[in-house]
Amino acid sequence: MVEAATRTGTHRILVVDDEGDVRHGLARAITRLTGYESATAANAFEAGYQLAHFRPDLAILDIMMPGMNGLEICGELRRIASSDEVKVIVLTGYPGGGNKEITVLQGADLLLEKPQDVETLIRHIDDLLGE
Prior knowledge:
alpha/beta, Rossmann fold, 41% helix, globular
C-alpha cells in the first residue's frame, strides 16, 4: 500500500473528468493515500479556474469530455504554464491507450489507460513530482 508518510513535499493535484463519480473518487483517493491536496474540475472552464486559483503541481486529464477534451485542455495548459510548472497525466478509456505521439505533442508527461489502479497511478504521480 502507498504510504503518505514517505512523501517529503506537499503537492496539489487537479483531477479533470466529466464523470462526477470518477472525478471525486479519484481526488479523494489521492488525498487519502498521499496527503496531497486535490481539487476537481468537470470541464475546461472549471479547469481554467482551478489552474489560476488552485495552482496545481500536477493535472490528471480525461481525454474524452464534451466541449474541449483533455488533450485540448493540456495544450491550453502548456500555453499558460511552463512545462516545469505543471506536470500532466492524460487518462484514456481507449483500448490500446490512444495515440501516444499526439498526446506527447500536446504536452502531456504521461498517457495512461483507464481503468487505472489507484496505487499504480499514485506511483506515477510521485515519480513525476520527484517524490
